[in-house]
Specification:
Elements: H1 5-19, H2 21-30, H3 32-45, E1 51-57, E2 63-72, E3 75-85
Antiparallel strand pairs: 1-2, 2-3
Helix pairs in contact: 1-2
């Protein structure tokens, strides 16, 4: 699964606005691997060309991380990823 680095950077910036820099880094290091693994499975089981969207709510309810992607052939590509304050 491919994710553009700038999407991670933009997500980190938004998380930093909501939680502060240290907590944003912790979220990216501990929570994001599980989110991306789950989303990868969703892309792998989707039909080629199908758009997949998922919203992952963080435990404290203050923020959600949203991913959107498309399966192209055998590999999926994330086309959108962002954090949104709830």
């Amino acid at each position: 699964m491919r994710i553009d680095v700038s999407m991670f950077e933009n997500t980190k910036e938004k998380l930093s606005e909501i939680y502060g820099s240290a907590e944003a880094s912790r979220i990216l290091m501990t929570v994001m691997p599980g989110i991306t693994a789950d989303f990868r499975k969703m892309l792998e089981t989707s039909a080629p060309g199908e758009t997949v969207r998922e919203v992952y709510n963080l435990e404290d309810g203050r923020c959600a991380i949203c991913l959107e992607g498309v399966r192209k052939g055998t590999e999926g590509t994330v086309t959108r990823m962002f954090a949104a304050k709830k």
